[in-house]
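Nitroreductase: structure, please.
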Amino acid sequence: MTLIDGLNWRHATKAYDATKKVSQEDLDKIIEAARLAPSSSGLQPFRLAVISDPETKNRLAEGAFNPECMRECSHVLVFAAWDEYTEARIDTIYNKTTDERDMPRGRFDRYTDMIKEMYAAQTSEQHFIHASKQAYIAFGLALAQAAELRIDSTPAEGFDNDVVDKVLQLKEKGLRSVLVMYVGYRDEERDWLAPMKKVRNDVADFVLTY
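Here you go.
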């Protein structure tokens, strides 16, 4: 099966079979796809929270627009972005990079000084918006990997960020929630979207050719 086959197969699942669980092996592949996503300056300014505990899912569901999906799916994946770019965070990433590549620390100072200066001129909210965009890239790759594995998923922005941040104590970790992804296996009888035809723009309408 190709990636395109998987993307044609997938849809935003509307009801999950609570008795079916995603194996740790497959879950690890979805996580790895997100971890390997490209990000601006290689900073990877986001983290992935993985929730399977029923009690925690119930608490998160209090702020969800589709609470049953949150409760019944196998795992809830929360993509959380840095609340701001700091010199310490940038140095931590680039120190790890130079150490892993057997290079002297400071090898990339010219570049890191430039991005530190750029972020210093911005607000923390601008930082968060930029970091959130990086999280979306990882989110897309996680959705694609789930589809390739024939694991159902639902991308969700419909949730109360304050509830999620509080339950997962993200603020204390310097993070803010951005997106939620439900993963599991559809309930064939209750997933009303499953039998419907997928509708997308035709290629001629979608692609702008110059």
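Notes: The radius of gyration is 19 Å.
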